[in-house]
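Data availability (excerpt). The following record was deposited with the supplementary files.
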Amino acid sequence: MKRILGYLALSIALAWTLPLRAQDPERDSIMQALKTIDPEIVRYFPRWRVCEPNLQLQIRQTFILYGRDK
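Predicted structure:
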């Protein structure tokens, strides 16, 4: 019986800490930084030439998705 109560207490403690770890602001800021385009290199984008049509389409769709259609 004590073992079952111990496992129950451990499960409740783990369930309590998992949502706290999922909302870590440092982790969110790191993920946002990884998904953001560096403003210093944005001005060089028109100079690149992509020869593969499939890759051109994927790049265009990504720009449209992020609101940079022009």
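Summary of structural features: The chain has a mean pLDDT of 79.
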